[in-house]
Design brief:
Blueprint (H helix, E strand, L loop, with lengths): L11 H4 L1 E4 L2 E4 L5 E7 L14 H13 L4 E5 L12 H15 L7 E4 L3 H10 L3 E4 L9 H7 L4 E4 L17 H19 L6 E4 L8 H9 L12 E2 L5 H6 L9 H13 L4 E4 L2 H16 L4
Parallel strand pairs: 3-4, 3-10, 4-5, 5-6, 6-7, 7-8, 9-10
Antiparallel strand pairs: 1-2
Helix pairs in contact: 2-3, 3-4, 4-5, 9-10
């Protein structure tokens, strides 16, 4: 990577809309909330809670009722140190839930996976968006798969892999390096035939970052607007909040998450990915109103 500086700041209010199967977002109007649905036994804050299909479906419907704009479904934990599972097991976890909710909810479903085989199965089952923690790097077929389904992609930055990403990550220039990685993902998407207006970027809070790195990303988030793409931010219940708050467990990081979400929205986030939808919808409405200077 070249470590070149980010592009000049860009007015995200004026530029971006995203339209796809079962989804329409106008980022000039407001910020959006993505609700997390982990169908895993081992996710860091809610592992096992929604591993049962009926529990997962009920939670998806509840998050829609609480104001979520997207439901993000994942079948493999990507917490620090997490091991990989086979694609067939990931499909076995997520596809039945996607099939069960696809015609029962009015909001789009995204699939949180870095495997093209899983993405293909999920998109065929009714998902609309691919959320790839590797920024289209781990599976070379991912971009083509999303393009074939005409699905938007969320390109996230990660340093390393979930197994090793938190083993003393070091950067020469944090924001420029992340921006370069995201630029590379954007080029991969374009080369595969994914339209520019179907690409979202995510700087990857907690994915190969120290506490200080995460704080700097949120503080300088508006610098990523130079990439001229909607920005997703995912600070929900992350370890850096627990450390700042004196060692609080994941289940007690609601207020810290709210603070990170509010600052993130004020600094340019267009979508926030959260566990506690009802509370964060309220936070986003207030923070977004302050940012834009208008009531919602």
């Amino acid at each position: 990577m070249t470590n070149k500086a980010c592009l000049p700041l860009f007015d995200t209010f004026e530029m971006m809309k995203l339209v796809c199967k079962n989804c329409k977002f106008d980022f000039s109007k407001r910020a959006y909330v993505m609700g997390i649905l982990n169908i895993t036994p081992d996710s860091f804050s809610d592992g096992g809670l929604f591993f049962n299909k009926n529990a997962a479906v009920a939670h998806a419907l509840r998050m829609q009722d609480e104001g979520a704009d997207i439901i993000d479904i994942g079948g493999e934990s990507t917490r620090p140190g997490a091991g990989k599972i086979m694609a067939r097991e990931e499909i076995r976890r997520v596809v039945p839930v996607i099939e069960a909710i696809a015609h029962r909810i009015k909001i789009p479903v995204s699939v949180d996976t870095y495997k093209s085989e899983v993405a293909n199965a999920a998109l065929s089952a009714g998902a609309s968006i691919v959320n790839d923690i590797s920024g289209l790097r781990f599976d070379k077929k991912m971009a083509e798969t999303a393009a074939r389904h005409k699905a938007p992609v969320i390109i996230m930055h990660i340093k390393g892999t979930p197994e090793n990403m938190q083993k003393a990550p070091v950067y020469g220039a944090l924001i420029p390096e992340i921006a370069d990685y995201l630029r590379g993902g954007i080029e991969i998407a374009r080369d595969a035939g994914i339209d520019d207006d179907m690409i979202i970027i995510d700087p990857g809070i907690g994915f190969g970052k120290t506490v200080e790195h995460n704080l700097e990303i949120i503080r300088r988030l508006n610098e990523f607007t130079g990439l001229e793409k909607p920005i997703l931010l995912g600070p929900s219940r992350k370890a850096f909040i627990g450390k700042i708050s004196g060692g609080l467990p994941a289940t007690e990081r609601l207020e810290g998450t709210a603070a990170a979400v509010a600052v993130g929205i004020f600094n340019g986030a267009n979508i926030v990915r959260v566990h506690d939808v009802k509370e964060m919808v309220r936070v986003v409405k207030v923070a977004d109103s302050i940012r834009r200077g208008i009531g919602i």
